[in-house]
Design brief:
mainly alpha, about 110 residues
Length: about 110
Amino acid sequence: MGMNADIQAYVSACIIKGEADDVGNSEKGNEQYPIINTIYLSLKSSNRLNELIPLLDHENPYVRSWAAGHTLKISRRKAEKTLKSVSRLRGMVGFIAATTLEEWKKGNLNDM
């Protein structure tokens, strides 16, 4: 089963952002955020966030982490489990996953 163009663009932007952040290229990383966020908001507004759930098993940890953060409300247990697993990885991706999980548990992501 192939991914639609939105999901492919989301995956690509997550990977580029993660790799750029890891090497300290915040400019390149920051360029990807509007792409990720626009696709997320578009999926959310058309009740299509469930299309991100398969990405919780994606081979790339950046993709898993973003998708988990974006599906916490619709697939809480699997998204939390994904964030826990990514949070054990070294580097920015692990730190961001751990922070996302912490903020979620504090109730700070409810307006997403």
